[in-house]
Amino acid sequence: MKVAKRRQSILELVHSGKTNVESLCAHLGVSEATVRRDLTALAQEGLILRTYGGATHIGTREPEQSLEQRSQQFSSEKAHIARAALARIDDHDTLLLDGGTSTAALAKLLPERRGLHVITNNLLALPLLRELPEGRVSVLGGDLRVGSMSTVGPASITMLERLSADKAFVSADGVVAGRGLCEASAEQAYLKELMIRQAAQVFVLADASKLGRDRQQYWSLLNRSWTLITTARDPELLTPFVADTNVEVEVLDPEAPTRLRS
Q: How many domains does the chain contain in total?
């Protein structure tokens, strides 16, 4: 198959929903190296967006919501998730707290624990952490990302590379089983991935709207054991996570949390 025809076929397949390298290879009968070269070329032409392990149609990328919109959406679910996350935290833990409104909801509850050391790039959380009993807060420096009111960039990375934590609590624009967390910027995605590496335990806080959502370009890998805390009740959304042996799934009921283990 000629290069131009093959790339047109790949473009059509990506538009139809075949977005990972393996499925494209199987459909076209060519090597992974060939598909990756073609995907890179199509991305350079602005026809697709490259993602970890494949690509997505340029039209499926969503504009990032404003901080005000994210703060107002699913507020009761975020509060419920935050309360369940707090149950995973012990006095004197060292925590990595990611940027975002879900993790800010958790920050509001952290004064209920004693002796915490909270390491965070979440500027929304700072006013909520002023009165940690016997605790302390370390702020990751760097460049201000106004859209999330968090710090990112080389200074944040350099500081985080020299720290470790008992537990990391992260959120995301989307969470996909077997793939990871998607974000609107490369800086966010890399810093989040570094948090995941630096913690002994990892907890992802996600309401139902985030599960299976892959409408952003940049990805943080989740190739280790981690826990999903979610309000999702739809079996279709939950099944890929429950089936993943790396994931413990805690599904929250308004009355009492029910913990499912894959």
A: 2
